[in-house]
Amino acid sequence: MKFTRREILTAFLGLPFALAACRSDSADDFPDGEIVGANVNAGHLLRENRNAEVPIQNWETVKTAIVGGGVAGLSAAWKFQKENFNDYVLVELENKIGGTSQSGESKLIGYPWGAHYLPVPFRENAELIALLDEMNLTEGVNSDGEILVKEQFLCREPEERIFYKGRWYEGLYLSVGASETDKIQFAEFQRQIDYWVNWRDSKGRRAFVVPVANCSTDAEATALDKISFGDFLRQKGFTSERLLQYCDYACRDDYGLKLEQTSAWAGLFYFCSRVRESGDESQAFITFPEGNGRFVGHLHERVKDKTRLNTIALEIIPNEKTVDVVCLNTETNELKGFHCEKVVFCAPIFTANYLIRDFRQNPLEYVKEFQHNSWFVANLFLRDRPKTQFARDFPLAWDNVLYESPSLGYVNATHQKGIDYGECVLTYYYPMCAEENARAKLFGLNWRDLADICLTDLSRAHKDVYQLTERIDIMRWGHAMISPRPNFLWNGAREQANKPYRNIHFAHSDLSGIALFEEAFYHGLRAASEILKV
Fold first, then answer.
1. Where in the chain is the domain with CATH 3.50.50.60?
2. Interval 73-103: pLDDT, tens
3. Which percentage of the chain shows pLDDT scores above 70?
4. Cis ω on the peptide bond leading into residue 211 (within 30° of 0)?
5. What's the whole-number average pLDDT of the chain?
6. How far apart, in whole angstroms, are the C-alpha atoms of residue 467 and residue 498?
7. pLDDT tens by residue, 499-516
C-alpha cells in the first residue's frame, strides 16, 4: 500500500507540522542520497531454518568462534589477544564491523551511524580504562584516583542546545520561560536523583552504576522496574511539561522508548549511573567526529586478521564436548564450517532461537522477553552551516535537539574538530519508540520518504536546510537496541540468558537490558574470561 506524503509526515512528525510542510514547496529542492548499511536479506536467512550441508573440505578447526562483530564480539576478541590466545575466529554478517557503533567517512570528516559518545568511566571500571590507556586518550588520574582524559577528546563546548518556538537555547532542559512551578519541580526532581545517587544497599552497592552487573539487587531498587518512568514521575507529583519532556527525551535518547514505555529503573539509571556523588556533574563525554566508530576501529585493528566479514552464521550445533558453526559467505554464496571447542554468541539474544539447533527444536521462553526497537539514522552533508533566525540565538552545538519533535535532532560531526565554518555533516536520529509494527513501517518506506521526514523535521529550525543539503545517506536499524520496558530488567530473563549453554557463552548488551557501549564491552570481556579460565 502506497502512502501519501501527508500520511507519512503525519505518522512520523504529527499532523500540524505535516499540514504546514505539505503547503510548502521546499520539498521540490531535493538532494541526492541512498539507503546504506545493514544487509536485511542476509539477516532474514536466520528465519529460514536452513539445514545446510558444508563440503568436507570447507571445515576448519578453531578453539573458539565469536559470532557477531559488534562491540561485544570485538571486545571478546580484544581480550583474547591481550591474553595471547589466538586460536579463534570472529564472523560478522555485514561488510562493516561494529554493529550500531560503526561509522562512515567523507572527504571532509568521519561521522557516526549510531552510538556517538562514551562517558568517562569511574575508576572502578579498570578494563575499560585500560582500553582508553591503550588508545592514548588518558593522562593519569586526579587526587581522587579518577581517570583524566586528555582535553581534546572530551566533548567541546557548547555541548547541547534546544530549539523551542523559533529560538535556540542552551542545554537540554528548557529553563527559559520556566514558571515557578517548573522551577520547584525541577529542583525536587534533582533531589530524587540525589537520593538514588547516594543510596547504598547492605553490601554497599549502588542502585545504578555502569556496568549493570554491579548494580544492587535489593528489592527497594529493583521494585522500580515494575512501573514505567511516567508512573514514577506521577507518583512523585511531577506535572511540569518541561520536566516531563526532558525525561521523555532521556528515554528516547538512550532507549528508543517513550516515557510511558520505559521502566522507571531504566529512567533513573539514565540520570544516576554516571554521577559519582550527589551534587556532582554527570561524567564528561569522550567523543570523536565518527562517534564510537573510533573505538570500533581500534578494536578491529587489533583483531582484523581473525575477522571474517560478509559471513553469516546459519546454525550453531552443540555436540557432546564441541560446537559446530555453519556459515555462509554472502558474497560468494559458499558454505563454511568451524569445528570449535567453544562459541561466544555475540548476536542479539532473540536470534538464539533461530541460530542454535537445540533452541530451534525447543525455543526458550525467556528469549521472548528480549524485545528490540527500530531507528533510522541519516547523515546530511551540507555545503554550509544552517543559519540561525536571530543573532542572539544559542550557537550550533555538538548535540542539537528540537523540543517539539519526536526525533532526537542531530549531532554535528565537525564540532569536535573545531571546524566552525563552511561544510558540515549532521547526523540525525529518529527512534521508532516501539510503536506497533514499527519495523515494518520503517522498511516499508523508501529513501525519498525517509529523507523527506528528516528534512521536513529539521526545517522547523533551519528554513534553508533543503538548499544547503547536498546529500543524505540513511541507515535503517531494524533491531537497533534492547527495550528496557517495565518488568523486563529484573524479571529473571537476563539472569537466565547470561548462563552458558553447554559450550556456548553469551555476550551482548542485551544481557544488561541497556544498550550502551560499556555494557557490550563488559559482556564481551566476561564471556572471553569464562572461556580462558576453562
1. 41-102+291-369+492-533
2. 999 999 999 999 999 999 999 999 999 999 9
3. 96
4. yes
5. 94
6. 50
7. 999 999 999 999 999 999
Predicted pLDDT of residue 190: 97
* DSSP bridge partners of 426: 380, 412
Specify the CATH architecture of the domain 5-30+372-482.
Answer: Alpha-Beta Complex (3.90)
Sheet strands (E) in 6-45: 32-36
Question: Residue 416 CB: number of other CB atoms within 10 A?
Answer: 24
**In whole angstroms, how far apart are CA 531 and each of 69, 86, 126, 212, 274?**
18, 13, 20, 21, 30
- Residue 393 CA to residue 379 CA, distance in Å, equals 24
For 152-194, how does the pLDDT look when each residue is reduced to its tens digit (9 = 90+)? 999 999 999 999 999 999 999 999 999 999 999 999 999 999 9
**Cα atoms in the Cβ-side hemisphere of radius 13 Å centred on 13:** 26
In the structure grid, which three cell numbers stand for residue 301, read together?
585493528
Compute how many other C-beta atoms are within 10 angstroms of the C-beta atom of residue 45: 18
φ/ψ bin of 464: left (φ > 0), alpha (ψ from -120 to 50), beta (otherwise): alpha
Parallel, antiparallel, or unpaired: how do β-strands 138-141 and 147-149 relate? Answer: antiparallel
Whole-angstrom Cα distance, residue 348 to residue 138?
32
Tens-digit pLDDT profile for residues 24-76: 655 567 899 999 986 666 555 555 555 679 999 999 999 999 999 999 999 99
Strand, coil or helix: 399: strand
Where do the CATH 1.10.405.10 domains begin and end in the chain?
Answer: 175-283
Contacts of 193 (CB under 8 A, 6+ apart): 268, 271, 272, 275, 278
In degrees, rounded to 5, the angle at the alpha carbon of residue 459 between the alpha carbons of residues 455 and 464 is: 95
Grid cell at residue 443? 522498511
Residues written for the chain: 534
Is 465 in contact with 458 (CB distance < 8 Å)?
Answer: yes
Going from the C-alpha of 281 to that of each of 194, 197, 478, the distances in angstroms are 11, 12, 34
How confident is the model at residue 18, as a pLDDT? Answer: 77
Q: Per the CATH hierarchy, to which homologous superfamily does domain 41-102+291-369+492-533 belong?
A: FAD/NAD(P)-binding domain (3.50.50.60)
Secondary structure (3-state) at 372: strand
CATH number of the domain located at residue range(s) 175-283 in this protein: 1.10.405.10
CATH 3.90.660 residue spans of the chain: 5-30+372-482
